[in-house]
Design goal:
Elements: H1 21-24, H2 37-44, H3 54-57, H4 65-73, H5 77-86, H6 91-97, H7 120-133, E1 148-152, H8 156-167, E2 171-176, H9 184-187, H10 196-208, E3 212-215, H11 225-231, E4 234-237, E5 243-244, E6 257-259, H12 260-271, H13 277-280, E7 290-294, H14 298-310, E8 314-318, H15 330-338, E9 342-344, E10 347-355, E11 357-371, E12 377-381, E13 387-390, E14 393-396, E15 400-401, H16 405-408, E16 436-438, H17 441-444, H18 449-471, H19 480-484
Parallel strand pairs: 1-2, 1-4, 2-3, 4-16, 6-14, 7-8, 7-14, 8-9
Antiparallel strand pairs: 5-15, 10-11, 11-12, 11-13
Helix pairs in contact: 2-4, 4-5, 5-7, 6-7, 8-18, 12-14, 14-15
This protein binds flavin-adenine dinucleotide and iron/sulfur cluster (2 copies).
Flavin-adenine dinucleotide (FAD) binds next to α8, β2, α14, α17 and α18.
Length: about 475
Amino acid sequence: MTSGMMQFVDVEKAMPDKRGAEFRRQDFREIYEEFQPKRAAEQASRCEQCGIPFCQVHCPLSNNIPDWLRMTAEGRLEEAYEIASSTNNMPEICGRICPQDRLCEGNCVIEKGFESVTIGAVEKYIVDTAFEQGWVKPVVPSVERSESIAVIGAGPAGLAVAEQLRKLGYQITIYDRYDRIGGLLVYGIPNFKLEKEVVARRAAMLEASNIRFELGVDIGKDISFEQLRTRHDAVFIGTGVYRARELAVPGVGLDQVVPALDYLTASNRKGLGDDVAPFDEGSLNADGKRVVVIGGGDTAMDCVRTAVRQGAISVKCLYRRDKANMPGSMREVEHAEEEGVEFVWQAAPEAFLGDGVVSGVRAVRMRLGAPDATGRQRPEVIPESTFTLDADLAIKALGFDPEDLPTLFDQPDLQVTRWGTIKIDWQTMMTPMDGVFAGGDIVRGASLVVWGVKDGRDAALGIHEYLKTKAALPVEELPTAVAAS
Ligand code: FAD
Ligand code: SF4
Ligand code: SF4
């Protein structure tokens, strides 16, 4: 066993300092400060260096967590960075926004009675330090290849596949209908979880790696999918899921009943300095309003916390199950509670009230009934339990479904599941269409950044194999080169 590790008996689990709720309510800055070097080393030294590290097993990227923790504990940060970046294309982002309580940290098997090792915050610290020290470098492939790959979507999945393929020397063009690089990292997730400079820093590194970005280009409208296939040797679809689920209740069409992503995108754009008329005119803005958010996932948590920061008079979150059964990360719920959000558990909207503009939400109380096919208890209405909440802004955060891509891309051969997600062969990440690959939310349904990165990396292997077979590349170009770099 490495000396200096296993300090969990003497050192308590700690996160970096969290700014007080009264301060963080005032701005959109990230809520955690950076670890101080000594503190990061101390926290890393709590790790037991398990023979079978369950933290790693439950990280979608199988990150070599014990090794980077040991390097951090020993002050060997550059080596820690090399390890962290060998399996993850955006470790500083995952370190910030992975729901660690459900993934690596939630599965840390440190001795019973002791809290898990702090993993995400150490990952973030390592890579933020690497950026500061200039250790993060653009990709310079050892060979340049002539084959080109089109990537549709500059979100985590698209960025990961692009970087992995660029390492192998392929020519990559990423097309995105947005005007900035990052997908939901920029326009969905708010600054207080992920500051936009962090995404821009990563994007700049990819641009410096000679990955081409064609922004403001909507595939299916500005350029047809067929044209892309003609221009490039392979295509990766990483378009995410953007069709907001609707509520079928009376009054849903009233003014100021808005979809979550419209609301969050307006807020993020404003933070980036864009002109956002609906925000400036007050419609996609919670300032001075009584806000009711409907839903219990990460998006709902981001909405309630954004509304607090915009100066809402009150913010309530209506969710049909109880706290223990909500899909959002428990850590986010706690942050929201600290910031003054009121949760109305086990309640569902019955109607939006108002004359032209919303003035209230009529809701009913729910209880958890018999389990459904997935084993999850089904919420059912408690009769005669109606109540009303005042609201000047109601935000619908009920999840997202994929757009109808076969129609949008005019590609009937692009097969979809019954949920509308794209069908792929998980071994190769290829769709039934030759040379067309896919990954991220458009394949999994609304998921996580870390899974997008994983899919991008796997698809890079699949695309390399595909192109190698087509062009009969030299045998030494094994796909493991991608996995290991
Ligand atoms: P996206 O990030 O959605 O990127 C897809 C890109 O494709 C977009 O840039 C889009 O403009 C582009 N595109 C789509 N169609 C076209 C087209 N026809 N032509 C050109 N471009 C196109 N995950 C976490 O891990 N932690 C969190 O805390 C977290 N919080 C979240 C909060 C919110 C509000 C939301 C909505 C999601 C959150 N997620 C979180 C989920 C995470 O953001 C997604 O799982 C992840 O971004 C998916 O990556 P992706 O690359 O598949 O798609
Ligand atoms: Fe944990 Fe996410 Fe980092 Fe994996 S990528 S170690 S799950 S924070
Ligand atoms: Fe260290 Fe916990 Fe991972 Fe074990 S499970 S190696 S203690 S972080």
